[in-house]
Each structure stands twice: as structure tokens, then as C-alpha cells.
Amino acid sequence: MRRVFAGIATTMALTALIGSASGCGSSGGSGGDTDAGGVDQVKVGVIPIVDVAPIYLGQQKGFFKSRNIELTMESGQGGAAIVPGVVSGQFQFGFSNMTSLLIAQTKNVPIKTVAAGVASTGEQGKDFGAVMVKADSPIKTAADLAGKKVSVNTLKNIGDTTVRESVRKAGGDPKNINFAEMPFANMPAALQEGQVDASWVVEPQLSAVKAAGGRLVASNYVDAAPNLTVAAYFTSAKLAGEDADLVKRFTEGINESLAYADGHPDEVRAVLGSYTKIDEKTRTALTLPKWPTEINQASVETLAQLGAKDGIFGDATPDVAKVLP
Questions:
Q1: Which residues of 242-317 form beta strands (DSSP E)?
Q2: Model pTM?
Q3: CA pair distance 114, 117, nearest whole angstrom
Q4: Which of 129, 229, 232, 291 is most exposed by smallest CB count within 10 Å?
């Protein structure tokens, strides 16, 4: 379910979609419907994962309702539908990892981030994502990943670029890592059965691998940049231009939600049960990410540099300023 925006690199499909983009609001604009009471009906494209807990918590707490916004969260079809869905007006807002947004910018997809989404804890060995191996694996450090088969959820995205950086920092050569694409949900079994030598996993799969005796060899988000901004909420350039007031109110609501979630981890663990199938035992044990209200621009610039170094943008160079709020 976290095969986030693998299809975004298909330029022709995105170009066709952008050219035919039209709004889904009641007046034909890109905003949501507004009911008789002046409340905006807003759809947000999300992936049902730990990262988006704040928006569900904020919905429960009334942080959006108090700003005349009625939220509906919708899961992107296969992940890759969220960016095109926002551009077309199917969703007014969406959630994406930063590398996917940078890729979109290099392809001139008209989107703009409006708020931070989720961030690394910044603590080695205590982050919500990590590269894991079996307990008896000969791989001892990230440098040993060179020449090995490593699973990531999406090729040429935030996973492989940050894993390569872990290998570089450990003194290894990342050029010949054999990355294998598979859903996060499949990774614990693939690792256990020896289909891959190592897996980059995030919660709750990280806790599952640990419970099976897996061993951590790299905190790749931490290695990539201090306090890495992993993902953000975004909207279309069209909506940002046509309904700045709605964007402002949504941004205020999500920022209040992020701050509340960051300070109330027990409530985060509880709300996870409302939109995921993560059982209570796992929810209690898993490592939560951080939810700052500010995007760490320096870390996004680092992601752009890493992506360029690893060739995921083709011949283009991302313009970070055009992506950020």
C-alpha cells in the first residue's frame, strides 16, 4: 500500500492528465463543494499508513471543522493516483513523500506543498524506517550492502537514494546494489525466506521484522539528513491560485493536527486503529515518526542532491523553491 507514486515518472500519462485537468467542485472550479452552511467539503488523497495519523486525529478533534472544513480522506488507487488526482481536482489536497514531489516538479506537474507531513526522528537506531537483515546475515554494516539485493517499495525514489547514502557514509560503494521493488507489506516474508539480502522497511513492518529477530544495519533517513522531512501535504497550483482562503484554512488545520499528534503519542496509537489494520499490540510497540509543523528545507535540498547524484530526475534538476510553500 505504500508503493507511493511509482507511476509519476510516466511523463506522457501525467502530461495528458494535466492537459485535460478540470475541477470537481460544484461550480466547476478545483475547490471542494461548499454546502448551504458555508462549510467546504474537502477530499484529501492519503495512503492508510502511520505517517498520516495527524490528519485523522485532527479530524476527530475538530481542528478542521472549526475552520469550516469537512474532510473526507480517500486512499489513492495504487498510490500513483494521488498526484494526478490532486492536479485534476479529484482531491483538493494530497500526501506525498518529498522525492516524489521533486520528481513531479522536474516534469512541470503544477503542484505546491502547503504543509509538512512527516519527519524522521533523527535518532540512529530509533527511527520509523530502517534497513533490516536476518539475525544470521553476514551483513554487519551498511557498507556490506554493496552488491546485495535490497528491497524498496518503489524504485528510483526516496528509498533507494537514502539507502545509497547510508552505504556511502559507511564507506561502501552503492553503485551495484540490486534494488528489488515490492510492497512494504511483503518485505518481512521476503526477508525471512531469503528472497532478498536486506529490506528497507517502515512501520509497522519494521516492528514485524524486529519481532522475527531481524537486525538493523542502517537508519537510512537519519543518514540522509538531520531531521529529514520525509513527506508533505500538497495541493494543485490551480487551487492555490483560485481559493487561497481554503488553502490557508486547511494549512492551519493540518498544522494544529501535526502539533497535537507530536505531543500526544498515545492518542496517535489509538487513532491508528480507526483507519489501518494494525493490531493493538503492534500499535503499542511501533516507533512513531516526528510531526513538526515546519518543512526542513535543507533536508529537502539534500534529497534533491541525492536524487540528482543517483540519476532519478533524468537530465532535469529539481527547483526546490518551486515545490515548497
A1: none
A2: 0.87
A3: 9
A4: 291
